[in-house]
Amino acid sequence: MYFYLHIDGKILLCFSSSICVCMFIVFYWLDLCRMEGGNIRQWLNFLVCALLFLIAEASYVPITYLQNAVAKGAVCLDGSPPAYHFDRGSGTGINNWLVAFEGGGWCNNVTTCLSRKTNRLGSSKQMAKQIAFSGIMSNMQIFNPDFYNWNRIKVRYCDGSSFTGDVEEVNPVTKLHFRGARIFAAVMEDLLAKGMENARNAIISGCSAGGLTSVLHCDRFRALLPGGARVKCLSDAGYFINARDVTGAYHIQQYFSQVVATHGSARNLPQSCTSRLSPKLCFFPQYLASHITTPIFFVNAAYDSWQIKNILAPGVADPEGHWHSCKLDINNCSPDQLDLMQGFRTEFLRALTVLGNSSYKGMFIDSCYAHCQTEMQETWLRSDSPELEKTTIAKAVADWFYERRTFHQIDCPYPCNPTCHNRVFGPEDNHQGKNVTSKGTSDASARKLNFPKLTNKVSYA
């Protein structure tokens, strides 16, 4: 809940009634002391700064370590406990649950997995103690009207396999643990005990590798929850396709095959796929999405920046770096490169056809050069957010979830959509780019926020 407070021409946004009251008192006394100067005014100014600091910190959510999971072998690559961030629901959202899985690519062999042991993608010891929730994770109704008061959980990613690995043996030299599937099970067990077993509405979601997690574990998540609950899945930038690179090779297929083999993932991939196809293909949503029985919604850019950089034009297929500038900024792409990207879009849309037109399978496929759009405020819900059919991602997802209407929209080809936030990477970036767009930085904290028109009275929402 938040409150608008109008004081002497100043409009304040308060995150709680108590903060609003405190700020009202502070400004009242500041006004009385305006002519006094002295220590009282200095002390009150300090109090104002302290309150503003508390407000700024209000959207940050602390980390929770699952220490008891270690005994079950549910650990990160380095053997540290798994972790998540939990912002409890309130009011009408007390029995609604949104479990979002963090992204961060994969590691496909011992060398690449070792490189993750020393950072947050392989060790909870290196994770931030608190993170900001925005977009679909926001606790502010103004920015997230349909899910703001849900129980919102961000599960940290430290296994490198989209939570599918399970190898019992631990090499005594590398001391790598491949236990992603056990982490998934341990987190679910913990959340069920904390109230998720009583869920009335629930969503499993994620971005990138986390978006693939929500696909691979969609039906498994549904099976854990009450039969009468509305349970659905949301995959953001997780529809990775099995496509050739610019040399004609299936680099991504080989890469995913190595991920599955390294982590022992085969037994934890959906049996509806592994019973028909090689496990290496069951890491691609196009081969299993049609067999997912739980309703699922896909948010994806047809020109997904990660897929352009790593599937269409990976470094191994472009040793001389002809694609380097293009991958940093789509505006730098040559006509020939744009033609190949249009061809990639065609392949992407063809891979989507397996979803059919069922209301159980929703989609928001825009023509932006982007990657992950549900957890960034500027692309989730803001006055200049991307739209399809005059509908933002936030509204499309919520309308589909609550069955207010179906949503099955595919954008026209680039560069037709003026609402896109096309990602621009810094020259020093490799796989993880700065959140910079053609409309400016996409870091919500660095942008001027666009609020609805405010009133001159305290209002409640």
From TrEMBL:
<comment type="similarity">
    <text>Belongs to the pectinacetylesterase family.</text>
</comment>
<dbReference type="InterPro" id="IPR004963">
    <property type="entry name" value="PAE/NOTUM"/>
</dbReference>
<dbReference type="GO" id="GO:0009505">
    <property type="term" value="C:plant-type cell wall"/>
</dbReference>
<comment type="function">
    <text>Hydrolyzes acetyl esters in homogalacturonan regions of pectin. In type I primary cell wall, galacturonic acid residues of pectin can be acetylated at the O-2 and O-3 positions. Decreasing the degree of acetylation of pectin gels in vitro alters their physical properties.</text>
</comment>
<keyword id="KW-0812">Transmembrane</keyword>
<dbReference type="GO" id="GO:0071555">
    <property type="term" value="P:cell wall organization"/>
</dbReference>
<keyword id="KW-0961">Cell wall biogenesis/degradation</keyword>
<feature type="transmembrane region" description="Helical">
    <location>
        <begin position="42"/>
        <end position="63"/>
    </location>
</feature>
<feature type="transmembrane region" description="Helical">
    <location>
        <begin position="12"/>
        <end position="30"/>
    </location>
</feature>
<dbReference type="GO" id="GO:0052793">
    <property type="term" value="F:pectin acetylesterase activity"/>
</dbReference>
<keyword id="KW-0472">Membrane</keyword>
<protein>
    <recommendedName>
        <fullName>Pectin acetylesterase</fullName>
        <ecNumber>3.1.1.-</ecNumber>
    </recommendedName>
</protein>
<dbReference type="Pfam" id="PF03283">
    <property type="entry name" value="PAE"/>
</dbReference>
<dbReference type="InterPro" id="IPR029058">
    <property type="entry name" value="AB_hydrolase_fold"/>
</dbReference>
<keyword id="KW-0378">Hydrolase</keyword>
<keyword id="KW-0964">Secreted</keyword>
<keyword id="KW-0134">Cell wall</keyword>
<keyword id="KW-1133">Transmembrane helix</keyword>
